[in-house]
Amino acid sequence: MISKDITLNEVNSFSKNTLLSHLNIEFTNIGNDYLEAKMPVNHKTIQPMGILHGGATVALAESIGSVGSNMLIDLKSEYAVGLSINANHVGSATNNYVIGIGTIVHKGRSTHVWNIEVKDNNEKLISVCRLTIMIVKRIK
Predict the structure, then answer these.
(1) What is the model's pTM?
(2) In the prediction, which pLDDT does 57 show?
């Protein structure tokens, strides 16, 4: 279960002065078993052919899973980082925004696995991603 103690405003405040803020990624919904964020399709996120860049899509997906995992652990003693990501880009987007919804499929002590689907504003599937997160113990 994703922490309900953290508000969307708090989650979005963690993104200031990071890649997420540069790409205008905004977390939009926290559910019991999912985390959602949106990203504009604009001059910052497209490739030269005018369509959404796969790397920007992967940045959205990894951000969702990483933030989601950090919401599931005790941040005083550990933190979560991306270990491996796979993305299948099955559609394209040229304007408006895309929405990523991540659901955790494995919550272990040392790893988490997330499925993230990225869709355009018309609900068309753009990418399907699988992210493995490593839980790292903080050195005291």
Answers:
(1) 0.94
(2) 98
